[in-house]
Amino acid sequence: MAGIHSGNLILINASHPHMESRRPALAPAVPGSSVLLEARAAAMLTGALERIGALGEIVPVSGWRSNGEQREIWEGSMAESGEDFTRKYVALPGCSEHETGLAIDLALRADEIDFIRPDFPCDGVCRRFRDIAADYGFIERYPAGKEHITGIAAEPWHFRYVGRPHARVMREMGLALEEYVEFLRGYPYPGELLCAGGGGYEAEIGFTRCYGTHIAPSSPYQVSGNNVDGYILTLWRLPA
Ligand SMILES: [Zn+2]
User: Of 90, 142, 178, 190, which residue is most buried, by most CB within 10 angstroms?
Assistant: First the structure.
């Protein structure tokens, strides 16, 4: 059984630390890279970059980090750049999405890349990646204008894998992950669920506080903890 603290939709922020101690199944973020991601997120990232011909042009800078690495990054940034900068751009050790393997920092290829704030501009190939990211399940996790909700300054280079239907809903509605987790409380399972679809699939999305044997949808489904207080269900509606 899935736990509240694991799955593609876990909310990780300063109030909701990463609780899962098992290391995810990891794979190179793109073929040949030493940057690692959770295996499915890596496959989807590679697929997205292949589609726009950007492998080698857009490069992974930082993916999965152990708690120890996150602590080193935090302490290094505090020593080099001070507390104000660090609190803005570096998540507290234990509260970083990078520890889940579902977050990736991307950069436009360059001779020198800033590890904390890589350059990922709004135009060119980076723009093309943004345009299709949701179709591959990625959201821009710390958008400008949502700093008061995410607690992190705008980071146009940081993407988070949440899965396609969820990424598309969040993008269409302009919701940060914090807001999406709240929003789904309005769709308790079983009951009227949120319909999401387009692009050859249809899904229904709902929230439940308890997950167990009484949940047996008649269609294929996935479950993820929200890392707060319950589970997000994704029910796939197969074409008739
Ligand atoms: Zn990041």
Answer: 142
